[in-house]
Amino acid sequence: MEKNIEISKWDTAEFLENQEDIGAYLQVAFESGDPRQITKALGNAAKAQGMIDIASKTGLTREHLYTSLSESGNPTLQTLTKVMDTLGYQLSVVPKVDRRHTI
């Protein structure tokens, strides 16, 4: 008996339903220290909020945002801070946690 299995592409942005979700998601991405993960997370958060709205508020084009905030993107600090500000967040400096000495 053959069963039809439907596979759909995962879109993280569909599951970022509110500021709390977005904040937790961005926090984990930034804690990873991986620039690609941070960039992709910002792109997903911007998409969840509405890329056209984010583009309008930042003064950047939608195309620029999609390119810069893709997994292979490399946004400038200016783009990064504009998007974070529009999402309601800011960059800050905190001491790095040395995870080797935690239980």
Over all CA atoms, what is the radius of gyration? 16 Å
H/I helix tally: 5
Strand content: under 5%
The sequence of SSEs as H and E is: HHHHH
Q: What's the number of structural domains?
A: 1
What features would you describe in this structure?
With 103 residues, the chain is mostly helical. It has a single domain, classed as Orthogonal Bundle (434 Repressor (Amino-terminal Domain)). 53% of the residues lie in helices and 0% in strands. It has five helices and no strands. The chain has helices spanning 19-32, 35-49, 51-58, 62-68, 77-87. Helix 1 (19-32) packs antiparallel against helix 2 (35-49) and helix 2 (35-49) crosses helix 5. The radius of gyration is 16 Å and the shape is globular. The N and C termini lie far apart (50 Å).
List the defining traits of the structure above.
103 residues, 53% helix, 434 Repressor (Amino-terminal Domain), mainly alpha
Give a summary of the structure in a few sentences:
About 55% of the residues lie in helices and about 0% in strands. The chain has one domain: 434 Repressor (Amino-terminal Domain), CATH 1.10.260.
